[in-house]
Amino acid sequence: TTRLLQLRRTALPLGAAWYSGHADRLGLGDLTWLRPDGSELHGEDWGNGDRTLGCLIGQPGRARAPLLLLVNADTRAIDFQLPSGVWQCVLDTAQARGIGSWHGQGDVALPVAAHSLQLLAAAGSGVPVPPP
User: Fold this and answer.
1) Are 117 and 90 in contact (CB under 8 A)?
2) Total count of domains within the chain
3) Which whole number is the average pLDDT over 78-88?
4) Residue 101 belongs to some domain of the structure
5) Once rounded to an integer, what is the mean pLDDT over residues 62-68?
6) Which of 22, 51, 65, 81 could form a disulfide with 38 if both were Cys (CB 3.0 to 4.6 A apart)?
7) Is the C-alpha dihedral spanning 40, 42, 44, 49 positive or negative?
8) Is residue 131 part of a domain?
9) Could you give the CA distance from residue 77 to residue 30 in angstroms, rounded to a whole number?
10) CATH code of the domain covering residue 9
11) What is the pLDDT of the chain when averaged over all its residues?
12) How would you write 77-122 as a 3-class SS string?
């Protein structure tokens, strides 16, 4: 809980404005819902019974670069395909203190433990990473 509150104050990921889901002038969506394979969720995906989803927050409140929320409510670990770029896990609810340790290049599959979520910050986001 402490780590989550710290991230909320620092990154303000949902900001004060509502997300439109529309692309900005560069063609990037402000909020994009993703399947574990990295493709965008479509209407039929919302009712398919899967217990996983990703959310790419392209225009986060105080962060200077995208955030990626990976949610796994399944009973088994699920691999999520990451977008390109360099990512750092800043929250992992499968860890006792909520501190994630993964850092690396995107375009890889990242396992997310059962009944957990991870919040990743793109390089340059300004979201602080606590010491392990």
Assistant:
1) no
2) 1
3) 93
4) yes
5) 72
6) 81
7) positive
8) no
9) 28
10) 2.60.40.1180
11) 81
12) CEEEECCCCEEEEEEECCCCCCCCCCEEECCCEEEECCCEEEEEEE
* Among the listed residues 96, 120, 107, the one whose alpha carbon sits nearest the alpha carbon of residue 7: 120
Range with the largest mean pLDDT of 16-25, 82-91, 111-120: 111-120
CB atoms within 10 A of CB 3: 18
Range of the domain at 57: 2-122
Decide if 29 is inside a domain.
yes
Tokens 């501190």: give the residue: 99
The more confident residue out of 1 and 109 is 109
Write the CB contacts of 46 (distance below 8 Å, at least 6 apart in sequence): none
pTM of the prediction? 0.81
Tokens of 5: 């509150």
Give the span between the Cα atoms of 67 and 120, in whole angstroms: 6
3-state secondary structure of 104: strand
Tell me if 132 is assigned to some domain.
no
Do residues 98 and 90 make contact, with C-beta atoms less than 8 angstroms apart?
Answer: no
C-alpha separations of 77 from 18, 42, 74, 105, 112 in Å? 31, 23, 7, 20, 5
Place of tokens 């699920």: 78
